[in-house]
Amino acid sequence: MKKVFIVRPFGLKTIYSKAAEGEAPKKSEFDFDEVEKQLIRPATEAAGLQGGTTAEVFEAGDVREDMFSELLLADLVIADISIYNANVFYELGIRHALRNQHTILIKCRGFDDTPFDIVGPRYVTYKKESPDKALEDLKRAIKDTLASDRTDSPVFKTLPALEAQDPEKYISIPDDFLEEVRDAEAKKDLGLLALLADEAGYFVWCLRAWRLIAEILYQNKSFEASRVLWEKIRSEKARDLNANDRLATVYQRLAESELTLNEAEGLGLLGKSDRAIDITLLHNNITPNSRAESLALRARNAKTRWTSSWKDKTDEALFHEALRSPYLIESYNWYYAGFMADLNHFYSGLNALGMLVILISLAEAYPEVFEEGFDSTEIAAGKLAEYHRQKQQLSIAVQVSVNAAKLKQEDLAKKDHWVFVADVDLFCLLSTEPKKVAARYDKVRKEAGKLNIDAIVRQLKLYRMLNVQTANVEAALAILNPQSAPMPKRRHYLLFTGHMIDKADRPKPRFPASSEQDARNRIKDCVLSVINSLAKDEELFGIAGGACGGDILFHEICVELEIPSAVYLALPREQFLKESVAFAGKPWIERFDKLLATHPHPVLAQTTELPRWLRTMPDYSIWTRNNQWLLQSALANGGQQLTLLLLWDGGGGDGPGGTEHMARAAEKRSAKILLIDANKLKQEQ
After folding, report:
1. Could you report how far apart the first and last alpha carbons of the chain are, in Å?
2. Which domain of life is it from (predicted)?
3. pLDDT given for residue 59 in this prediction
4. Are the C-beta atoms of residues 635 and 610 closer than 8 Å to each other?
5. Which of 193, 195, 187, 190 is nearest to 222 (CA)?
6. What is the pLDDT of residue 60?
7. How far apart are CA 370 and CA 115, in angstroms?
8. With 64 labelled, which of 123, 257, 392, 647 sits at a CA distance of 20 to 30 A?
């Protein structure tokens, strides 16, 4: 949640209006508290901003330290400069010295002149008698200011080389929040990590929390969940180096998996990756290695576009299209640029050489196609000769780079086996002795142990498809013996939430015990409809709580239909039974325990009390938190492959965290929703 800090005079002030020459100034009373009440507060609340004024800092006690913190950390400062007030101008000066943007000035005309050194900045004007008349102007100013990168501090305008303070550096994350993050990381609970990130959004330290959790999700290859957080960071800091660097890779990984399902969407994701790379490369403080990494990723994106342009072709058309595609030379150029940015980055050099070998091989096999891009046969021949010279020079440079990397490995206890793989890949590209190629791949395969060889095999199969170094490639693949394992199915998450069985003393029936069979039938019909809608490469996984009524019925139906599911518990068994199961009787307890004996059942918390760091969040309880946990778990693991199944009467819950809350939360995330109207449940006689 964005924060605002309001700088203004307080209470009723005696002021004098400007007077014409020869006339006495008119004395009047000016109620600045009313200006906040009628104008400032309505505007900030409409913008979803949270925060206060210097008066609240005075009440807190440590005046100067807290005031300085607010002026530094606030996403927006609104300062009322209607009259000469020492505190207002002092605080405004501090803000202008610390932050280069996102400060709004407001002023009631007709009183003190604006000081000359802040005459330039624009400000919102209002009338003393009716400040609320300027409400729409202030709302618009807040929206425009927060969306703008414009410098509004006269200090930074005058001294453009001065760097504004980064508030993120001065904010600490609560220790107990960090402990929860580390526990979730250790358990690889992606849903809990996503929940913690969502909750952190309410607090001033959200950026640091998002950055921490986004990196954990990234390292765990939960790219969609990671993307959401990196984009949140980038929405606050558009040119953030860390966020753009990670998003470049995230979008590239998402694109490669999406291209097989929706080519247009996949290519769009590659474009987003390219734009993030471009922002990264503009940073002055990017290291040579990071620059090489970014350029190599740009090359990989071009390579992906290249393979996508001819993957559906057959026979001669495949080779012709592969050679004609502009992405072939584009990929080579980007890889080469990466290697030139850092000659220790042998990965980009090796891949540049690989693309160049492919280009030369295709050009020599199909000279008539290669010559299409040149004005004459002689010019084409000259270009091909130039490529051969580049190949010779690049081969030597890459070999030196790989050798240097191998020497560094000698002093390391834990070897980076990819260095030795690169050495063999290079030998495969340049050698004319297939048996030696096979022997080297066999050696590195044995020494590397559980090294994932998918990337090696993928590149070798690309060479095979294009008839590049055929003898070497066949010898290598025979040794590596890649198994064509079936592609794992994508999980589609079915998240259920619904009413509990009515308690005996419930005044108005909602889900009476006599409606259990009809509820079961309706839930089962919906589950079957989801199964029938799945794509061939999708499988279903169920998520729900464990309360008597809808939750337990859902899990039992999943068992019947052989659908794996997990029982998410807000509290440990004994407490959860007391809160959500036991009142319905012994049979429901037995059914609950049977599910726990055969299903994974993660537990959110040990008590109903929220963690200390979370207790200031309004209208939040263990039950609303549990709903968010269920939803975030489905989203973090399944991304867009999510359906929410609701058993709901459309009304409010009996307390916080009910079915209505889950429905509203899912709507905000654009989840597909199937509704079973609890009002239509039939009762057995």
Report:
1. 52
2. Bacteria
3. 46
4. no
5. 190
6. 45
7. 70
8. 123
Sign of the dihedral defined by the CA atoms of residues 396, 402, 406, 407, in that order: positive
Domain 490-680, architecture per CATH: 3-Layer(aba) Sandwich (3.40)
More confident residue, 3 or 452: 3
Helix locations, 167-314, DSSP H:
175-187, 190-200, 206-219, 223-236, 241-258, 263-281, 288-310
d(CA 329, CA 335) in angstroms, rounded, equals 10
The three-state secondary structure class of 565 is strand
Bigger pLDDT: 60 vs 122: 122
Q: How far apart are CA 679 and CA 677, in angstroms?
A: 5
Give CB contacts under 8 A, 24+ apart, made by 165-170.
165/72, 165/98, 165/99, 167/72, 167/73, 167/99, 168/207, 168/208, 170/69, 170/72, 170/73
- Residues with Cβ < 8 Å from 568, sequence gap 6 or more? 543, 544, 545, 546, 601, 602, 604, 626, 629, 630, 633
- Other beta carbons within 10 angstroms of residue 19's beta carbon come to 10
Q: Which of 664, 584, 583, 670 is nearest to 624 (CA)?
A: 664
The structure tokens listed for 474 are 């066949």
Determine the pLDDT at residue 484.
57
Q: Using only the alpha carbons of the chain, give its radius of gyration.
A: 32
Proportion of the chain above pLDDT 70, given as a percent: 92
Q: Is there a contact between 106 and 127 (Cβ–Cβ < 8 Å)?
A: no
How much is the average pLDDT of 87-105?
A: 93
In this prediction, residue 100 carries a pLDDT of: 92
Longest CA–CA span in the chain (Å) reads 106
For 480-509, give the DSSP string: H----PPPPPEEEEEEEEEPBPPPTT-SS-
Q: Is the dihedral of CA 348, 350, 353, 357 positive or negative?
A: negative
Please provide the size of the chain in residues.
685
Of 385, 296, 384, 392, the C-alpha closest to 345 is: 296
DSSP secondary structure string for all residues of 495-557: EEEEPBPPPTT-SS-SS-GGGHHHHHHHHHHHHHHHHHH--TTEEEEEEE---TBHHHHHHHH
User: How many CB atoms within 10 Å of residue 552?
Assistant: 25
Q: What is the pLDDT of residues 523-575, one digit of tens each?
A: 999 999 999 999 888 899 999 999 999 999 999 999 999 999 999 999 999 99
Mean predicted lDDT score pLDDT of the chain: 90
**Interval 153-177: pLDDT, tens:** 989 988 988 988 888 888 889 999 9
C-alpha to C-alpha distance for 186 and 180, rounded to whole angstroms: 10
Determine the angle formed by the axes of helices 417-430 and 346-365, rounding to 10 degrees: 20
User: The tokens 């919906």 sit on which residue?
Assistant: 526
- Beta strand 12-16 pairing with 27-31: antiparallel
Collect all residues with Cβ–Cβ distance below 8 Å to 497 and sequence separation of at least 6.
544, 545, 550, 551, 627, 630, 644, 645, 646, 647, 648, 659, 662, 663
| Backbone conformation region of residue 467, classed left if phi is above 0, alpha if psi is from -120 to 50, else beta | left
Is residue 56 pLDDT above 70, yes or no?
no
Query: Phi/psi class of residue 267: alpha, beta or left (left: φ > 0; alpha: ψ in -120 to 50)?
Result: alpha
* Residue of 50 and 143 predicted with greater confidence: 143
The identity of residue 67, as a single letter, is M
Please write the tens of the pLDDT for every residue from 477-489.
999 886 655 667 8
Helices (H), 604-677: 622-638, 659-668
- Between CA 405 and CA 415 the distance in angstroms is 11
Can 3-169 and 490-680 be said to share one CATH topology?
yes
Q: Map out the domains of the chain as residue ranges.
A: 3-169, 490-680
